[in-house]
């Protein structure tokens, strides 16, 4: 048995299943900045991987190690952890961290450190989560405005954002 698998938390397993469902299977879209992907894992991020041969279990292990643990999602309150995890999968790590930090009202340096973690616990409200969502929506608008080729992805990005919001409330990850 994979020892990492035995330590993966129920919240992570719920979140990763949702992310993989949203990301889908194998995709090679030349207009997509992510390039060749499967389950949201990109060849650009992992050039050593045979993306077509990537299994669901391999993707889950990568997400656990390189996304959930490495980005300190495990230290955040549930809804914020899921928000950050999905954001890191969809964006560069620094941009995802900045969205979280802006929503929390702390310095947006892109590093999830003890100040950000403490602020997340001190400000665990739906209003704070709503600010994070609005910063992510602003970022999508910025990307589409900066690069005309990305405009075709805008509707899908916003759908992803709305699905994430529904997921968080459906699973009662935050309540005021």
Describe this structure in words.
- This protein has 176 residues and is mainly α.
- Helix content is 60%, strand content 2%.
- The chain has a two-stranded antiparallel sheet.
- Helix 2 runs parallel beside helix 4, helix 4 packs antiparallel against helix 5 and helix 4 runs parallel beside helix 7.
- The radius of gyration is 16 Å and the shape is globular.
Break the fold down into its secondary structure elements and pairings.
Layout: H1 3-7, H2 10-23, E1 37-38, E2 41-42, H3 56-69, H4 78-90, H5 93-104, H6 114-122, H7 126-146, H8 154-170
Antiparallel strand pairs: 1-2
- Report low-confidence residues grouped into runs of 5 or more: none
Measured by DSSP, the beta-strand proportion falls in under 5%
Widest sheet, order of strands: 1-2
Helix content: 55-70%
Total of helices: 8
| Helix/strand order | HHEEHHHHHH
Distance between the termini: 39 Å
Q: What is the residue-mean pLDDT, rounded to a whole number?
A: 94
Structural class by helix and strand composition: mainly alpha
Assembly type: single chain
Kindly provide the radius of gyration, computed on alpha-carbon positions and rounded to a whole number of angstroms.
16 Å
Report the major sheet. 2 strands, antiparallel
The shape is: globular
- Give the strand tally: 2
